């Protein structure tokens, strides 16, 4: 079974990535769950219907299994849903020997992980990712919910006990979700592996190819890139910021759309274009952004922003980014046609992590 081991300062855990791995690892997962007093399965409405058989299996896998079904998408990552999950756990007497199983995409995983990180100051959790995007979100231990003013602003680093990524579940993803998740794979190529980026660009030339070609080998490479970075810098004191490539601008775009207009990966593609152009200006990066954008547009990515959205609005949102160090004067951005005003920053670091 293809397994990547994530080893950080605080944890070591397997990430099993394979088509049908939930079926193949059934006994192992049941054995794992049997170690706990209670199991809380957090999933969203879509997944609970689409993958009812997985939910039923989990429900019967062990004693004392409780479901908790969230709204779909970003609406799961709210204070209200976080509180509802806590209420559910307290009223069903979940104790410190309980485990949370996150069955779903990044939104479910981020919420479930944060609930696990904070319930009784921390209980175990296991990730069963179901989206392309979750090859990124299920690994590395970043967990969070949103505040209306800022994305992922309330959260914790809390590593899962294990990740079982059944890539056969990806076939049911709608086109926009497929594309959104694929953006994080493109990111992994851009930040760490030019060969992976070239392979991805050669193998996926239109939207249909996202379904036609098994993504498992590419997603596995993306996960390995993430695992290596997280192993070196679990709490984003340095190089983990590379995994945030495109996210300063991208999160601002997401927030500007009230977390509804753009999916995460759609906004991150826009953010990565911004970061690439900025890197060209600041560091002389040699990269053909136009060719990359044309390729991405063939897959259906849309880089346009509404004319009503001003740079000032995005700038305000970028001020909330967790990577900011507002005590220094190194926080500046460039916009099309605007002057570059990087007086005292480390250009390489800033442009790589925006
Ligand atoms: N923690 C991290 O390191 C990290 C990394 C990247 C992104 N994220 C976060 O992840 C979130 C986005 O995750 P996402 O794109 O997976 O979104 P998501 O969890 O909202 O899922 C997207 C949609 O797809 C549906 N869905 C899930 N699995 C499906 C399947 N197999 N078939 C059909 N539909 C399915 C869901 O019901 C939902 O409507 C964002 O909040 C982002 O901030 C976190
Ligand atoms: O794991 C990381 O580190 C990442 O930055 C991965 C990102 O794809 C992800 O969207 C993450 O949640 C963003 O982190 P944040 O710290 O900017 O909220
Ligand atoms: Zn991301």
From TrEMBL:
UniProt pathway: Metabolic intermediate biosynthesis; chorismate biosynthesis; chorismate from D-erythrose 4-phosphate and phosphoenolpyruvate: step 2/7
EC number: 4.2.3.4
Residues in 3-dehydroquinate synthase C-terminal domain copies: 181-324
Swiss-Prot/TrEMBL catalytic activity: 7-phospho-2-dehydro-3-deoxy-D-arabino-heptonate = 3-dehydroquinate + phosphate
Domain 3-dehydroquinate synthase N-terminal per the UniProt entry, residue ranges: 69-179
List of residues binding Zn(2+): 184, 247, 264
Cofactor note: Binds 1 divalent metal cation per subunit. Can use either Co(2+) or Zn(2+).
GO biological process: amino acid biosynthetic process; aromatic amino acid family biosynthetic process; chorismate biosynthetic process
Positions that bind NAD(+): 106-110, 130-131, 142, 151
GO cellular component, one term: cytoplasm
Keywords, sorted A to Z: Amino-acid biosynthesis, Aromatic amino acid biosynthesis, Cobalt, Cytoplasm, Lyase, Metal-binding, NAD, Nucleotide-binding, Zinc
CDD domains found in the cross-reference section: DHQS
Transmembrane parts of this sequence: none
Keyword Protein transport in annotation: no
GO molecular function, one term: 3-dehydroquinate synthase activity
Pfam families: DHQ_synthase (PF01761), DHQS_C (PF24621)
PANTHER family, per database record: 3-DEHYDROQUINATE SYNTHASE, 3-DEHYDROQUINATE SYNTHASE, CHLOROPLASTIC
Family membership noted in the UniProt record: Belongs to the sugar phosphate cyclases superfamily. Dehydroquinate synthase family.
Free-text function comment from the UniProt entry: Catalyzes the conversion of 3-deoxy-D-arabino-heptulosonate 7-phosphate (DAHP) to dehydroquinate (DHQ).
Name under which the protein is recorded: 3-dehydroquinate synthase
UniProt organism field: Brochothrix campestris FSL F6-1037
Gene label: aroB
């Amino acid at each position: 079974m293809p397994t990547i081991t994530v080893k950080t300062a605080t944890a070591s855990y397997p990430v099993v990535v394979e088509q049908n791995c939930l079926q193949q690892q059934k006994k192992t997962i049941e054995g794992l769950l049997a170690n706990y007093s209670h199991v809380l399965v957090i999933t969203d409405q879509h997944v609970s219907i689409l993958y009812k058989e997985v939910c039923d299996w989990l429900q019967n896998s062990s004693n004392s299994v409780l479901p908790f079904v969230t709204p779909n998408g970003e609406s799961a990552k709210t204070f209200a849903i976080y509180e509802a999950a806590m209420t559910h756990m307290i009223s069903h007497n979940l104790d410190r020997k309980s485990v949370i199983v996150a069955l779903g995409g990044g939104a479910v995983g981020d919420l479930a992980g944060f609930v696990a990180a904070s319930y009784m100051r921390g209980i175990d959790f296991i990730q069963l990712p179901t989206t392309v995007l979750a090859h990124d979100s299920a690994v590395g231990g970043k967990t969070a919910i949103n505040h209306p003013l800022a994305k992922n602003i309330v959260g914790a680093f809390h590593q899962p006990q294990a990740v079982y990524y059944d890539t056969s579940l990806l076939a049911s993803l709608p086109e926009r979700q497929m594309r959104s998740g694929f953006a994080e794979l493109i990111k992994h190529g851009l930040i760490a592996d030019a060969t992976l980026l070239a392979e991805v660009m050669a193998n996926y030339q239109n939207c249909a190819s996202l379904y036609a070609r098994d993504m498992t080998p590419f997603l596995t490479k993306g996960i390995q890139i993430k695992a290596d970075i997280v192993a070196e810098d679990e709490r984003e004191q340095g190089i983990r910021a590379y995994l945030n490539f495109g996210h300063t601008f991208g999160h601002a775009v997401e927030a500007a759309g009230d977390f509804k207009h753009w999916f995460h990966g759609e906004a991150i593609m826009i953010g990565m274009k911004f970061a690439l152009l900025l890197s060209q200006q600041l560091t002389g990066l040699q990269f053909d952004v136009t060719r990359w954008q044309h390729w991405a547009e063939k897959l259906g990515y849309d880089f346009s922003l509404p004319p009503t959205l001003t740079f000032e609005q995005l700038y305000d949102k970028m001020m909330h980014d967790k990577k900011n160090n507002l005590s220094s004067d190194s926080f500046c951005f460039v916009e099309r046609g605007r002057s570059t005003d990087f007086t005292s920053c480390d250009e390489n670091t800033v442009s790589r992590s925006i």
